[in-house]
Amino acid sequence: MARISIDPVTRIEGHLRVDVEVEGGVVNKAWASCTMWRGLETILRGRDAREGWVFAQRFCGVCTTVHAVASVRAVEDALSLEIPPNAQYIRNLILIGHALHDHIVHFYHLSALDFVDILQIPKADPTKAASIAEGMSSWTGNSRQELAAVQMKVKGLVASGQLGIFSHGYWGHPAMKLSPEVNLILFSHYLQALDFQRKSCQVVAILGGKTPHIQNLAVGGVMNAINLDSLATLNMDRLGMLQSILEDLIPFVQQVFLPDTCLLAANYPEYLHLGRGVDNYLAVPDLPLDAKASKFDLPGGVIMDGNLAGVRPIVDWQDAEFRKAVTEDSAHAWYKGAGPLQPYKGEQIPDYTDFKENAKYTWVKAPRYNGSPMQAGPLANVLVGYASGHALTRKWTNTAFDRIAAVNGLKITPNDLQSTMGRYLARSIRSSMLSDLALEHLQLLKTNILNGDDTTYNAPQFPTGEIMGMGMHEAPRGALSHWVVIDKGAFTNYQAVVPTTWNASPRDEKGVPGPYETSLIGSPVVDPEKPLEVLRTVHSFDPCMACSCHTLDVTGKEIAEVKIL
Amino acid sequence: MTLVSVIGLGNVFLGDDGFGPLAVETFRCEYECPLSVEVLDLGTPGLDLAPYLYDQQLVIVVDAVHSDTAIGTLSIFHEDDFLSHKAKLRITGHDPGLWDALAHLRLAGHAPLDLIVLGVNPEACGFAEGISETVRSTASRASSMIAQALIERGIACFHREPASTPNLWWMRMEQVERSAAA
């Protein structure tokens, strides 16, 4: 029996360690451990509730915006404060811009190279590659010339013998299966994605003032002044700029990103049957359409035991069951006390013991929903939408299924999405949905302004007694909730239950493991020194350990290190 | 159209790692620059740095940099200094971020034409312990070094008299705690 420890497994800021036990070439036990502590909740206590969001967006260096919005929503919930429709639309557009950015970067820059073998690219025939790519979509960036130029760059890189940032890939691994041409196509899109990553940031910057730390939020709305005749405010010029950026960005999402994930699924069908893991799913409603947040463009809900016929909808943010059902326990996390505790009463007093697989082994707590572990993320979002008959989700899911079938006749069903590959597909399906919704919400904003409504803010009034509130957001990595207790306008408790905590959850007090841990059971590992198959499944969750734990000290480890124990 | 980015990197809650954000905010308040210069506190963006480097004429990165100098020494580094291990960015997420983002952009043909790193040698980068006095006192000097680097490259910038007040929101709590302790 081989014991493999991968530390860290993320390609960006983050501190995730995964330990697996392999017997007969298959994983039979797994542990996910976050190696850093997140201290931000401690910093937020005692602070003015009106500026909590400024601090909350430093929960993570990458997903800043999501915490800012969840924070103001939590305070607004505590105050029962409605925000003007303009503020809802502006926030929604910012959240969509951020999500598209995150999903594009995740697929191309943080996980595609688990499936794409760079060393195969010099062998590709660019003419053949162009004809494959042109058969997939009408995207204009797939010409023979374009692909040949990318191939030249890769040839130069390979010939130099210095792969630089690509020197740690598992090139030539037996689990790499794409033809040289498909490798070339995907790597060409990898480079083009840098431009679209930038465009999605611009959407956030135009409305949010700055990225990555937006400046336009306020408890009660947004601080964007709207005046169609003024140069200095949100005017027709700015709105036109947004429209044209979106029109550039959306074809990349719908004609490149979505088809690329379909190409991957058709070539790696075994990953439609691997990595299912915890098949309870949680998605929260988002993209509110009115001041009261009573109607949403993205449905929320809960699916248990993979039963797509039995979704329980979460209709709005007031959902009584959600507020009762969420708890976190520290039985296996490096905190004092065990719980489970409801987030309003949550604590985080460190109790570090080193990695003890049968006791405490991570800085991540175990969140549970009515006592059960839940999987969060685009897959939960898409399955809940599909199962509840949401038209837009069905449209793009079916488009993806048709595209996979068009590659090599592979027929798949929504049930197959409950897998490692399903998480990759769901991310591009969700991005395609969000692209349509971006244009819709921009139109809603324009129409509302043209109808003469320029309000963006309702001033908050803080009572003297203790109040509590919860703010939700369906973030790129899944269901996020901030839980706040406020007295005299200042936080007395602050807890964030973040998507990666749901997914990277350790075992709970009953010993039930979380989604990462469960999803790895049964994964093949052909070469224990190069556990590529394990990485594919862990990366399919888009792990962001920065926000699920974060920042006590530095580890000094520069590169993913695989230890065979 | 932004052509020049002055980028502060670092985690404002990790002691001297907050130098980058402090220095660029000080610069923003002390100097007036043309619209083509963007001054940004990017925190710890990892690979998400790429959009801010894309096709730029000049990028000045300001960060805590471990080097063989006295604590609080300000130095200007070039990429070669890091490749030859003469200097080392703090190993949080943002170290691989900078060089990875740069390498990606080079391959794609959109790397900045010129990139320098203005670094301070940090004393301690612990959680919520505040920036050290030695490093904090270099902020204004760092700000004038940023200005000088811009002027040397033909980019106008003017000292503001008086300087505007920097928004150092993350230090407010520290000050409250320090005065409570005193």
From TrEMBL, chain A:
Entry keywords, A to Z: Iron, Magnesium, Metal-binding, Nickel, Oxidoreductase
Signal peptide: none
PROSITE patterns, per database record: NI_HGENASE_L_1 (PS00507), NI_HGENASE_L_2 (PS00508)
Compartment(s) of residence: Cell envelope
SUPFAM superfamilies recorded: HydB/Nqo4-like
InterPro entries: Ni-dep_hyd_lsu, Ni-dep_hyd_lsu_Ni_BS, NiFe-Hase_large, NiFe/NiFeSe_hydrgnase_LSU
Binding site for Fe cation: C63, C547
Residues noted as binding Mg(2+) in the record, renumbered to the chain: E41, H550
Organism: Granulicella rosea
GO cellular component, one term: cell envelope
Cofactor(s) needed by this chain: Fe cation; Ni(2+)
Family designation: Belongs to the [NiFe]/[NiFeSe] hydrogenase large subunit family.
Pfam families: NiFeSe_Hases
Name by which UniProt lists this protein: Hydrogenase large subunit
Any one GO molecular function term: nickel cation binding
Residue numbers binding Ni(2+): C60, C63, C544
Assembly mode: Heterodimer of a large and a small subunit.
Automatic annotation (TrEMBL), chain B:
Superkingdom as given in the UniProt entry: Bacteria
Classification via SUPFAM superfamilies: HybD-like
Keywords: Hydrolase, Protease
Gene Ontology annotations of biological process type: protein processing
Xref: Gene3D superfamilies: HybD-like (3.40.50.1450)
UniProt keyword Hydrolase present: yes
One example GO MF annotation: enzyme activator activity
Matching NCBIfam families: hydrog_prot
Protein name stated in the entry: Hydrogenase maturation protease
Lineage per the UniProt record: Bacteria, Pseudomonadati, Acidobacteriota, Terriglobia, Terriglobales
